[in-house]
Amino acid sequence: SLSQEHKGVNYGGVPGQPGVVQHTAVNITRGQQVITESPDHIIWSLCCFVYSNPFCLGLAALINSIRARDRKLVGDMDGARRYGSTARNLNIVATIIVTTAILITIIVFISFLLL
């Protein structure tokens, strides 16, 4: 019969016993603040610090990235966003300065080669 055929099927429980299915439910109500991840830009800050540290902007970005990570660990998401945003802005400025300097160096070098 059909019930005898399915009697030996095991779905992850104790052999011969039915398996246990677990469910997870998350309820979010209106007005409840949802905690989202805030980027700390630590990798970008490390690259700016190690490879191109114009006017110590890479160091300042790295310090703000570490502060953002520390704020996240404490649970202060507003502080983490603030420090992460500052680190991002410092990284952008440092990257633009270094990219501009590299392009100017290449253009000057090529112009001397062509003379």
Automatic annotation (TrEMBL):
<dbReference type="GO" id="GO:0005886">
    <property type="term" value="C:plasma membrane"/>
</dbReference>
<dbReference type="InterPro" id="IPR007593">
    <property type="entry name" value="CD225/Dispanin_fam"/>
</dbReference>
<feature type="transmembrane region" description="Helical">
    <location>
        <begin position="90"/>
        <end position="114"/>
    </location>
</feature>
<keyword id="KW-0812">Transmembrane</keyword>
<protein>
    <submittedName>
        <fullName>Uncharacterized protein</fullName>
    </submittedName>
</protein>
<comment type="similarity">
    <text>Belongs to the CD225/Dispanin family.</text>
</comment>
<keyword id="KW-1133">Transmembrane helix</keyword>
<keyword id="KW-0472">Membrane</keyword>
<dbReference type="InterPro" id="IPR051517">
    <property type="entry name" value="IFITM_antiviral_protein"/>
</dbReference>
<dbReference type="Pfam" id="PF04505">
    <property type="entry name" value="CD225"/>
</dbReference>
<feature type="transmembrane region" description="Helical">
    <location>
        <begin position="42"/>
        <end position="63"/>
    </location>
</feature>
